[in-house]
Design brief:
- The chain is built from three helices and three strands, in the order βαβαβα.
- It is an alpha/beta fold and 71 residues long.
- The longest helix is centred in the N-terminal third of the chain and has 12 residues, at 12-23.
- It is globular, with a radius of gyration of 11 Å.
- The relative contact order is 0.27.
Amino acid sequence: MKIRVAIFEDNRSLLEGLTAMIGGTPGFECGGGFPNCNNILKNISQVKPHVVLMDIEMPGINGIEAVGMIK
């Protein structure tokens, strides 16, 4: 079973880099990369990740608020 990761990062180049790195690592898959947390509950329910990589400072809903919503 692969570990499915969801990434929430507003820096586009960092998001793309992390997505490529995780997707290219054996045993892992990137379930989705998202530039903000505005649809966090919908994104999480669609991807069903095992792990979430969360940026803290993002426009709109910040990472700390988003983690609370996921929890």
